Amino acid sequence: MQEKEFGLIGFPLKNTFSKNYFESKFFANKLPYSYQNFEIKSIDELKEIFQNHKNLKGLNVTRPYKTLVIPFLDKLDESAKLCGAVNCIQISNNGKKTGFNTDFYGFKKSLENFIGSNRNLKALVLGDGGAAKAVIAVLNAIGITYSQVTRKTNKIENSWNYDALTKEIIRAHKLLIQTTPVGMFPNENESLIIPFEGLSDKHFCFDLIYLPEKTKFLLESEKRGAVIKNGLEMLHLQADEAYRIWLNEET
Hints:
Blueprint: E1 5-10, H1 18-28, E2 34-39, H2 46-52, E3 56-61, E4 75-76, H3 78-83, E5 88-91, E6 97-100, H4 102-115, E7 122-126, H5 130-142, E8 145-150, E9 159-161, H6 167-172, E10 175-178, E11 204-207, H7 216-223, E12 227-229, H8 232-246
Parallel strand pairs: 1-2, 1-3, 4-6, 7-8, 7-10, 8-9, 10-11, 11-12
Antiparallel strand pairs: 3-5, 5-6
Helix pairs in contact: 4-5, 4-8
C-alpha cells in the first residue's frame, strides 16, 4: 500500500489535537500513513508544502487560514460553498485540490444533539471568523434565526458590537454560540465581556473551544442556570468526517 501524507496548516499550532488523533486512527487501521503539523506564518508558504510533499493527500486547515486558503484550491465542495470557509482539503492522485468544510457537519450534529427539538430559538453568534461562518451556515440550514456580535458592526448586517450588548438582548436570544479563540488554553482566564446577567435556565450556551473543558464563558453561563456544551464532540465529529473524505476508498 502506497504511503500517503496528511497534515494540518495553521498558526500557531500549540494546542492542536489533530496529529495524535489521526496518527492513532491510521495505526488502528494498519495504514502506513503519516501526519505532520505545518505551522506557517503566511498562507503563501502553502505553495512550498504542495511542491515539497508529493505524497500529500489531505490537509486540515485551522485559523487563520480557513478563508485565505480558498484561492489555492481547484474546487469547493457544497459544504465549503455554504460556509465560505475551508477546514479540510482533499488532494486527488492527479493533484486536484478540493476544499470541504467538515465543521459544518460536526457543528450541525453536535448542535442537534445539544438542543434536541428546541428549534424555536433565536441565536447570538459571538465572532465572525471561519468557525462563525460554519455556524451561521448550519443555523441557516436548520432554520434558526440569528444575529452576530462582532468588533466591526458596520460591516455585517444584523449585528451588534460587543459594547452594545444589553441584558435585554441576551434575554431575547436563548442560544449563544461562542466561536472565537478567547478563553482557550493557555489563556483560560480570558473571556468575552458580555452581560451574563441576562442569562437564565432557559438558555443554551455552546462554546466551540474544547480546552479547557469549561471556559470562563461556559462557567459564567452555568452560574446563571444555562445549559452548556463545549466543542469536543464537534471536534471529533468534524475530524471523523475529514478522515472519511480522505480515505473513502479504504473505508
